Amino acid sequence: MIQCMAILKLTALESEGWTYRGEGRRGFVVANNNGLVLKLTKVLPFWRPDTYLSHYITNYQYVKLCIAPLFGPLLCFGQVVEIPPSFTTKVVSRIKDRRTSLKESSIDYHCPYGLLMPDACSLGNTVKDIITIEIKPKACFRTAADKTLTSKYPCCRFCSTIESRHLNGHIRAVTRYCPRDMFSGDCRGVSVAVSRLLDEPLSYLTVHWNGRRVFDEDRRDITAMLAVTGFRDRAEFVAIVTQVLLAPLHQGKTVLAVIEDAQLCNSLSLAELNEVDRIFVDAGLDLDTEIAKWVRGHSELDPELSEMIQHVINFTISVIAQDLSVMISLARTASGIRTSPGPRVSYKNQEYKFKVSVVDVELKSVKKLPMYLKQEQREIGLMIESKREKER
Description:
6-stranded mixed beta sheet
């Protein structure tokens, strides 16, 4: 779902009654008791006060042109709004102690804009006691060219990155979760992936009960989470989430299949993409600026460079698909009784109504292309070393 482009001015927002929903590298999500969900901006090195609105408009147009056609009704994206002065400061000060330990980047208190989001944790005004599970499925490769590469080694790019972050002290422990299981397309593989996320959530699995976080990388008591949310046991949680992830939802495809298609839309290797970047630099052009012009219909590139920019845009889509989140909202229903429309899954005579949303789809800068290439080379080295260790 994507709203029409308009800048609403929220003039009467109270700073009381807001709860912490979650955050990523670029945004911080809060919700209030009236059903409003706001995504606020974090400090970004390439955003300046005089460019805030321009960035928001460019991002909106990008999502409308490049992301919405791929994800259709699964997409949950908002409307650009102007927020009152000091609102962000007041809200964040009241809920800062609820932020998880892995979230260290700071909020941009000066940005006067945000995104008013559809509530991914809602199943309608009449449905109560909603369980919302947020999953970051990640990816086992960075470009389509990596797919053949990763099949040669016993661990994927994600797993090697996790191992590297652990060795460097950036995370407390490695995880057995692997995107190869999540994107396997079969019930057993997806069940294994969900079960491992439950054991080692890191920042890739969170659970909300009526909009309140009850399970994440800091709150890791599975028994307590099951008791609060009403799941009869761990097996029910895993089975229900697996069924939802494997349900055909958009053009006959599962949400995981739609995400994987987006991850594979870029066919160039990172080395080839870096060569494109070099060509633009040599021509005195900045890729981020040219992407913004293309998105807003102001591009003046010649046909050859226009073709190159399309490859780079495909890369940005694949990067987003590797780092987005899937929101699964569930509510128990009486088996066989359909009081409202919507898909359902069941486990041992208990039926659940559900909704799936895809969030965190903002345009990312391509200034990190050289860093991505170095990271890929390091990851390949780790995968080769891992293979040698297993063969000894």
